[in-house]
Predict the 3D structure of the following.
Amino acid sequence: RSHTQGGLPAFEAWSSFVSHLHDFICREGHACVPRAYVCYDDGYPLGQTVANVRTLKTFVKNAPGRVSILDTVGFVWDKEDEKWERFLVELRRFELREGHCRVER
């Protein structure tokens, strides 16, 4: 039995997702897709699809190879962890520049 995703056969849906994500990363320089993001050229709901991958494990459930592919391109699995990591990088830059971590408000 062939599974479908959004009306497409599963492999085609996965390929479409990866292609759209790749285009986003090339254009934006990161893989943290906003939930409401829709591809302007064809209306593909990339933001919602990314949210589904994160929460429902769409495309990646029991598929470690696909998880590895997404990890390789910098897919953000947990937005809060990603924000924390970005904060730590910026704090380290501040510390190197200023010699301390006491950031004024």
Remarks:
- The helical segments are 10-28, 46-56, 64-72, 79-98.
- The chain is about 55% helix and 5% strand.
- The two ends are 58 Å apart (CA to CA).
